[in-house]
Amino acid sequence: MIFRVKFAKFGVLKFIGHLDVMRYFQKAVLRAGWDVVYSKGFHPHQIMSFAQPLSVGVTSSSEYMEIELNSYESLEKLKESINAVMTDGIWVNEITLLDEILPHTKRITSMALVQAADYMISIKDGFDFPFTQEEFEAHFEEFYKQNEILIQKKTKKSSKEIDCKPFILGYSFDLYDFYDKIAIEPEYIKDGTIFADYYENDRRLYLQLTSGSETNIKPDSIIESFCAFHGINYDKFAYQIHRMELYSNQKGLQPLWAIR
Amino acid sequence: MKHLALSDDILLTIEKPARYIGNEVNMVKKDLSQIDIRFCMCFPDVYEVGMSHLGIQILYDMFNKREDTYCERVYSPWPDLDKIMREKKIPLFALESQDPIKSFDFLGITLQYEMCYTNILQILDLSGIPLSAKNRTKEDPIVIGGGPCTYNPEPVAEFFDLFYIGEGETVYDQLLDAYKKYKHENLSRIEFLELAAEIEGIYVPSFYDVTYNEEGILLSQEPNNSHAQKKIKKQVESDISNSPYPRKPLVPYIQAIQDRVVLEIQRGCTRGCRFCQAGMIYRPIRERDVNYLKSLAKDMLESTGYDEISLSSLSSSDYSCLHELVYFLIDEFRDKGVNISLPSLRIDSFALDVMSKVQDIRKSSLTFAPEAGSQRLRNVINKGLTEDVILDGAASAFSCGWNKVKLYFMMGLPTETEEDIEGIAQLSDQIARRYYEIPKDQRNGKVAITTSTSFFVPKPFTPFQWSRMSTMEEFLAKQKFLHSKVKEQLNAKSIRYNWHDPETTIIEGILARGDRRLSSVILSVYKAGSIFEAWTENFVFDRWIKALEENQLSIDFYNFRERGFGELFPWDFIDIGVTKKFLYKEYEQAKNEITTPNCYISCSGCGAGTYQCGVCISSHTKS
User: Fold this and answer.
1) B292, B298 in Cβ contact below 8 A?
2) What ipTM describes this predicted complex?
């Protein structure tokens, strides 16, 4: 049986990279005493996979991992047992038991399901950001009205300019307004900002962007483009990005935890 | 979010920010308002190295069991962060509380190898603690050194308020209690050091005066304070089945060098290899009770979630319940994906059985440490490993499917001749020949032999402490000679030859048997910008040469002279149980190529019996 585990990564854990988070969970499930399934062969390993990696420095309420177990008592017990062995900055919110699949068919992994992501971008305190919240909103509207929004898309080898406007699926400056604007059913809305850091200057932006293995738009590149558009200096350390949710868009926009 | 000493922009600029944020699994948290003593434990190298060290994990656990004490950790900031901290004047901080080291009561630094000495100064400097102990005030932590290098602490004596000589489990409580008295009664720093000096095993270097003769040889080392003891007695934990051991060791987020549970099965070694310092200073050998080990293994695997456990000791094969312990671990944990690693295991049928169960034959390699290339020289160094044992062990491993062999040797050992060196190449070749005696259809591809040589450094408290060390030219000639001999072998293509850098070895030699005058040399090298010298890319030989010259000291004096029988050594004030007389007798035996049996076969009267524990009082003997 396969479980999808939704967890938050926040606080000092934002400095831990994706590979180390994977290693962390391999140990955490053993500390929690989960009845983990091991692969056959000389080097048995846990059957575990992760969705969309998170960059170092970014916090998140919605990381996803899939794991196969031999048995379990209840989802509540699973959650309780793993949260009892977590360090500060990592917390399991939801565990979903995935439906059995038909024989000889292949399950779509969390990784492959991801098609969109919500982000909250906060301006950190103590940085030189020239706009008030009202100005920020007005300037962002102006920036968004461009016919094309060009960003630098970096790959391992090269960097190319692409128009990312089609991939900005929604934006707002207010959380409730944001959830109104993006096309998800109200029952799927869970406040994705709970584990985010808050800053006194209170300036922030919410974005829904295309995400996943095919096209993945990073929120920093939007901010960088925004700064360039307005001729202001882009300081990558001035923004705290928080991932609020990951979605699949197979039957309308659904968060990964709701997909069985 | 928890307050961190470093800002986000610094942490996101440097390599591996996880080195500096703490918060690891099993990290101890305490309410500072309930704490009398704040102790910061330091391993003066990068986090991934320091976190792999068992000793600190034991002491961390032991200190934190005391309700009045909070033990935290610090490791050396990597050069990228070091630079930023100096530029921005950020004080060095402990991982747990992220508070400056300067505000602690104790800074405990473990000294595991000589090439970390400049990192000690980096730690003190970044913390804002005066480098020289004599310049410290009540505002500064008490800086205490421990670990194997403190068996000759003199080269770094100036930088420490005190040293703890021996195993940490015994007198720390007394020391911490003395510290509380110092704080409550508002004593002076000197008065505290006097209290400390009266505790067995504690050495306060400033309480001793040293004199040298005109050649620079130590003439005397005398206490200048009535509280100081003439001899410092090495501390030994006599009952390691009832001594503290962490059931919840720390688990780093990033991969440490030792990324597994470490189970120390015994302490000490009976073999008496004459070059080996650990074999002498940890005498007598003491075993841990097998049931205690089983329960520790289970608890540690459960509390960490590690998928590997390593049995740690100087010679695992000598542990009397090894079979029971290993088969227990296999039965209990193997199907849970737990891997078992057994370093320092003699290759015999048991080892092959275990290895075939816990290791992937295709990937793993056999390791032998003959240390010397000929039986004659192995007799000199008392390495009880014969050519037959090596060849038969290799042959049976080959027949089980192994095809990779690693061999470790030393060059520059006392009495070494060209024949001994050539023996290294020949032995490597012999092993390859054994492999090709197996019928072709039963072989697992080609054999791969990796032969590595390091250069011999005479260490204090070994029979070779009197011995002359080879010069750089001699080392290079030996290495070149061996390289040419390896190439001449029939199976030269199957043998890969690796060697160490002789420059580092020369400096290690100086620091290992050096005296107090070297403190100013280490200081000059540090001031010239050297840190992380255990990392070859950061080691600058010329700075050492220059600093030695500036201080009118010579490599020749420390390394290239045979010391006389009667010479007073800088480390002679330490009593390790094993007597100088025994060591000298062993040196004579070495020169006569006569071996000494291990402690289980017969007692050679080394002197460690004074500790009344372990093999010295047990009746069990083995072949």
Assistant:
1) no
2) 0.94
Q: Helix H segments across A104-215?
A: 110-113, 133-144, 175-181
Whole-angstrom distance, CA of residue B224 vs CA of residue B230:
10
Q: Does residue B299 belong to the interface with chain A, where contact is any CB pair within 8 Å?
A: no
From the candidate CATH numbers 3.40.50.150, 3.30.70.580, 3.50.50.60, 3.40.190.10, the one assigned to the domain spanning A2-111:
3.30.70.580
Contact B568, B217 (CB under 8 A): yes
Q: CA-to-CA distance for B277 and B508, rounded, in angstroms?
A: 14
Which residues, at least 6 apart from B527, have a Cβ–Cβ distance to it below 8 Å? none
CB atoms within 10 A of CB B138: 11
B103 vs B91: CA distance, rounded Å: 10
CA distance linking residue A181 with residue A173, whole number of Å: 11
Return the residue matching tokens 């000490």: B268
Read off the pTM: 0.95
Contacts of B255 in chain A (CB under 8 A): 20, 23
Alpha-carbon distance values, B117 to B109, B511, B532 (Å): 10, 9, 9
What pLDDT is attached to residue B385? 86
Q: From residue B122, give the alpha-carbon distance in Å to each of B374, B505, B526.
A: 43, 22, 8
Residue A67: beta bridge partners?
A: A3, A48
Provide the shortest C-alpha distance from residue B333 to chain A (in Å). 12
pLDDT digits over B275-290, tens only?
Answer: 999 999 999 999 999 9
Q: What is the pLDDT of residues A87-115, one digit of tens each?
A: 999 999 999 999 988 888 888 888 889 99
Contact A27 B17 (CB under 8 A): no
Q: Which CATH number fits domain B261-517+553-611: 3.90.1150.10, 1.10.10.10, 3.40.50.620, 3.80.30.20?
A: 3.80.30.20
Question: What angle, rounded to 10 degrees, do the helices at B518-527 and B541-550 form?
Answer: 130
Which of the residues A22, A27, A30, A70 would you substitute to probe the B interface, choosing the one with the greatest number of B C-beta atoms within 10 Å? A30
Enumerate the CATH 3.30.70.580 domain ranges in chain A, comma separated.
2-111
Q: Alpha-carbon distance B237 to B287, whole Å?
A: 11
Say whether A29 and B305 touch across the interface (CB within 8 A): yes
Instruction: Say what the pLDDT of residue B623 is.
Output: 42
Buried b or exposed e, range B197-208, using 16+ CB within 10 angstroms: bebebbbbbbbb
Q: Where are the domains of chain B?
A: 8-233, 261-517+553-611
DSSP string, B491-552: TGGGEEEEE--HHHHHHHHHHHT--TTHHHHHHHHHHTT---TTSGGG--HHHHHHHHHHTT
A172 strand-pairing partners: A206
Q: Is the peptide bond before B223 cis (omega within 30 degrees of 0)?
A: no
Residue of A nearest to B12 (CA): A57
CATH superfamily of B8-233: Cobalamin-binding domain (3.40.50.280)
Q: Do the Cβ atoms of A207 and A118 come closer than 8 Å?
A: yes
Answer whether B277's CB lies under 8 Å from B324's CB: no
Spatial distance between the Cα atoms of B383 and B468, rounded to a whole number of angstroms = 20
